[in-house]
Amino acid sequence: MLKLTYTESSFDLECVTLSLEEWVAQRVILALRVGQSLCIEPNTASFLLPVDLPGVEVLGAEVKKDDREIIALCTCDAEYMEVTLRGSWLSASSKDSVGVFVTTMSDRAEFFLHKLWQEAQSCASVMSE
């Protein structure tokens, strides 16, 4: 499962070994125990990746193999591609921009997407220094 955590200023993408159902169930139980509102709804999440990252073509091949249409890739310009994922948005309210987006796809596609995102983050860190 992929988990994207959105904060006011950034987001983080991580691979989680729990199934989507197990993770959501644990999150619901936590919200109940602490008395927190929790909204869960189907939604999409998008982020950009540089098109010149090694392995982007492998991710593209994985996307073509998966007929569930959970992930879509779209070239934005000469430097970036947009990755759009279908899944579930969890937040305090349906209008909240801070929350967690979760989705599941093939293990291979999750691995490559996570690896590419990590590489993009390390490239961005090097460039900002």
Structure description:
The structure is a single chain. By secondary structure, the chain is of the alpha+beta class. The protein has one domain. Helices cover 36% and strands 34% of the residues. It contains 3 helices and 6 strands; from the N terminus they run ββαβαβββα. The protein has helices at 20-34, 56-65, 107-128, and strands at residues 2-6, 11-15, 39-50, 71-75, 80-91, 99-103. Strands 1, 2, 3, 4, 5 and 6 form a 6-stranded antiparallel sheet that branches. Strand 1 and strand 2 (11-15) form a beta hairpin. Helix 2 (56-65) runs antiparallel to helix 3 (107-128). The longest helix is centred in the last third of the chain and has 22 residues, at 107-128. It is globular and about 45 Å long.
- The CA-CA distance between the termini, in Å, is 32 Å
Mean pLDDT: 89
Shape: globular
Largest sheet: 6 strands, antiparallel
Can you count the helices?
3
Low confidence ranges: none
Q: H/E element string? A: EEHEHEEEH
Structural class: alpha+beta
Our estimate of the beta-strand percent is: 25-35%
Percentage of helical residues? 25-40%
The count of β-strands is: 6
Radius of gyration, rounded?
Answer: 15 Å
The domain tally reads: 1
Summarize the structure.
The chain has helices at 20-34, 56-65, 107-128, and strands spanning 2-6, 11-15, 39-50, 71-75, 80-91, 99-103. It is of the alpha+beta class and 129 residues long. Strands 1, 2, 3, 4, 5 and 6 form a 6-stranded antiparallel β-sheet that branches.
Question: Notable features of this structure?
Answer:
alpha+beta; 6-stranded antiparallel β-sheet; 3 helices; Alr0857-like
